[in-house]
Amino acid sequence: MSELEKRQTVVVVGGGGAGAQIVHSLSGKLDRAKYELILVTVRPFYVHLPACIRMTVTDKGKLEDRALIPYDHSFVKGNGKLVVGTVVSIQSDGDKGGSVILANGNKINYSVLVLTPGSKWEGPVALPDTKEECLQWIRDWRQKFENANNTTVVGGGAAGIKFAEEITDQWPRYGPFEIHHSKEVTLIHAEELLLNHVYSRGWRKGLARRLRKRGVNVLLNEQVEDLTPQNGSVTTKNGKTVPTDLVVSVRHTFHSTLVIGCFTNIPCRGGRPNTEFVASLGPGALVESNRVKVTPTLQLFHYPHVLASGGVIDWYEQKQVAKYGTQRLHDHQKRDCPLGEKISTSDLYWKV
């Protein structure tokens, strides 16, 4: 057996906020004579998701030139390779590692597997997989927002608030001489305050005041069950009629989002764990919410050579990309590390 054939293969599934940083970290530390590093992801470029809301609303700043980032510099000194594909299942061989199966039928063997598949999106931020299709998708959504005179955002979480802010910035309700513009933005939230209980009441109240000052009509303690505009409006559960021709729903009943506009249903459920393929490992790999069940060392129970990180793990936390660095190991010792002595599992998270 040649030296190359003796190498252990480290496969990272998902090149999003967590996966891209893990690959970059490992590529700078793994000895290429002993390890082969492979990143498997659905697109040949990284998508900066926080930028997608502004990018799909307006062409200001031409964010598509910066938010769709090639993986050119992800591998330090070229240590690693990129495979574009979709993983549909995992086959585990216990301590010997296993393999991941791609949608095209190809199989990639692993010694250590790192799962960072991120979330599945619908609506404006559900970008296609090729650059050309992405650019057309962005242009189409910008046109939808341009054509809408009355936009209703259902759900006062972070994404809903950001959509409302971007629309009012692009089409302000009042100009510099108090000239009334045609576009109206209404933000509907089911609770008495925006966001959620993690934030203080004072902050949440102040946020609503600031949005109203920007011209957003904020409706609290209201719900919309039928999101399809009827005769140019939607009706809340309490009977309030809201004029609208584009509904952007970002309600958070377990990260669910729905966008419906121009009398045509356009599903847009936001961040749901992209973990269907992990279920192939068998019962216990996923919890009821479809998040990955991990130990304090980020390893899957009963699968010590499979690790997970990012927003898909079943940890009680706000799922935000900037907080992946808080996914610290309770035990930083190297005794549980499947990569040997020189690489600790502490490298398998984003160090902010």
Automatic annotation (TrEMBL):
One of its GO terms (cellular component) is cytoplasm. InterPro entries: FAD/NAD-bd_sf (IPR036188), FAD/NAD-binding_dom (IPR023753). Residues 9-322 form the FAD/NAD(P)-binding domain. GO terms for molecular function: electron-transferring-flavoprotein dehydrogenase activity; flavin adenine dinucleotide binding. The keyword Nucleus does not apply. Keywords: FAD, Flavoprotein, Oxidoreductase. It comes from the Eukaryota. Coiled coil: none annotated. Belongs to the FAD-dependent oxidoreductase family. This is FAD/NAD(P)-binding domain-containing protein. It comes from Crucibulum laeve.
